[in-house]
Amino acid sequence: MRARSPLAGAVALGTTALPVHAHAGAPNACAPPPVSSLIVNVRDKGAKGDGRTDDATAIQAAIDEVAGTKGTVLIPDGIYLVETTGSARLKLKSDMTLKLSEGAVLRALPNDAAKYAVLTISGVANVWVIGGTLEGDRDKHRGKSGEWGMGIRIDDGAKHITINGLTSKKMWGDGFYVQEAEDVRFCRVTADSNRRQGLSIIAANGLLVLDSVFKNTHGTRPSAGIDFEPNKEWQKISNVRIEGSKFFDNAGAGILVAGKKARITKVQMTRNSFKGNRPFVVENAPGIAASICCNRQTSKQIETSGGFNAYAEPVEIVALQDDCAETGFVLDRGNTKKKKKKRAN
Question: Is the dihedral of CA 244, 210, 152, 289 positive or negative?
Answer without folding.
Answer: negative
